[in-house]
Amino acid sequence: MKPHPFLFSALLWMPFALNAADSAAPAKKTNVIILLADDLGYADLGCQGSKEVLSPNIDSIAKNGVRCTAGYVTAPQCCPSRAGLLSGRYQNRFGFEANPGPGTEPTAGLPLSERTLADRMKSAGYVTGMIGKWHLGRVEQFRPYNRGFDETFYSPNGGVLFPQKKTGFLKDIFRGANPVEEPEYSTDAFAREAVSFIDRHRNDPFFLYVAFVPPHWPMEAKAEHLEKFSHIPDLHRRTMLAMMASLDDNVGRVLNKLRETKLDENTLVFFLSDNGGPTGKVRPQPDADFEYGQNTSKNDPCRGVKGELLEGGIRIPFLAQWKGHIPAGSIYDKPVISLDITPTALSVAGGEKSANESGLDGTNILPYLTGVKTGEPHDSLFWRFRFPPGRPEMHRWAIRKGDWKLVKNGNHKPALYQVRADISESKDLSAEKPELVANLTEEWKRWDAENKEPLWDRPSKTELKPAPAK
Question: Of 84, 150, 300, 373, whose CB is crowded by the most CB atoms within 10 A?
Fold first, then answer.
């Protein structure tokens, strides 16, 4: 039987039609990954100048992208910093002032009035994943699977590295709502899960947030990494360096999976710390006992540590890569902040309208990192840290505007620093420039007038109301 002329013609045209359909298919949206270290000092990466920390994989993010030398977070402490990062808003606007204290667990978490970056990316058509340390609420309504994340593998509060000797499993690990018996070192387990997420969703646009534990306390490192640093006489520092080596290996696993799946040119990757390093006191002798909560990190040349609003508490390593878009090996020295990640991620997700919402405090920094825009991404940056709650004389605040930073750090009077030229905040110029001090103080007060009182001082049921749909 001869084929019908119309059928024969259709068969001839079919390859051309398929090619046309392929060319008309929309390009896959850009993936976004946030890699977060915990308590990492400003100086503790090779690309930040360290001669001790071995971090070739993390350094490669700077080599293939940009190193922001004036990168900040919104708080010098874990929980409020993460609240700012994932909401895209100063956490003071919704009362998430500091790590919740004892007895606050029923209401302690990122308020349900706040949409997370995961919520926004999910609305833009992304698969969303959260792996690692959560620390934004333990009770059901605050858990990550109820805050916009489709897939979760996490510790509610962090602080887990080795499995418990008694059980052979990590303490307090969950997949979604279910406890997990996890036998691996947590840094390895979190990277394994991240690699699996990327592999399974290689054909989907995805947003992945991986919050590692190192180099946060407890000081626990694998023998193979400790051996690399056997020449370091101080056990505490040796352990921190070994923890960082493990972190770097596992960041490498994530980056390798992007290359293997040919997604590295279609993925925007951020790497930063949640706050500055808790450096600890000068070590009195080699192999002295660990100092609880300290990790021997280095914030050089910044002065100050975790918990303070001096540069050492809030200026952190801040790296980004998007191959083919952000110039490789570039350095950006104007102030950026973790708040910028939300609008920047939304811009690549096709969410320009959301990126310009008045409720967000950050800026889409891609045009600045690529050189399309010049000038400062921010007119001013602000901080408020009322911690400890019962000691108002220790409460801290700061404002950075251009070259200048005015900071009240603990029980010291406000000090003025020309921080672009004086990163170590060594010369207080407040007596020489009283008018500038007055102007910056008034600007900070205007900003603070829009903030809420800390929730943990006065827990309120109204904070648990969910956000209206947008």
Answer: 84
Per-residue pLDDT tens over the stretch 17-50: 444 444 445 678 999 999 999 999 999 999 999 9
394 and 350 share one domain: no
Q: How many domains does the chain have?
A: 2
How is residue 468 annotated by DSSP? Answer: P
Q: SS3 for 119?
A: helix
Please give the Cα distance from 100 to 109 (Å, whole number): 8
DSSP H or E stretch at residue 83: helix 78-87
Please name the residue that has the structure tokens 């909401």: 87
Q: Choose among 198, 193, 247: nearest CA to 220.
A: 247
Mark 198-227 as b/e (b = at least 16 C-beta within 10 Å).
beebbeebbbbbbbbbbbbbebbbbeebbe
- Are the beta carbons of 204 and 349 closer than 8 angstroms? no
**Using one digit for the tens of pLDDT, what is the confidence trace for 370-379?**
999 999 999 9
DSSP conformational letter for 29: P
Q: ω into residue 278 within 30 of 0, thus cis?
A: no
Q: Are 204 and 211 in contact (CB under 8 A)?
A: no
> Which residues constitute the domain of residue 344?
31-369
What is the C-alpha separation between 397 and 129, in angstroms, rounded?
34
| Same-domain check for residues 49 and 106 | yes
Residue 416 contacts residue 424 (beta carbons within 8 Å): no
The residue assigned the tokens 């400062």 is 376
Residue 357's pLDDT is 63
Percent of the chain at pLDDT exceeding 90:
80
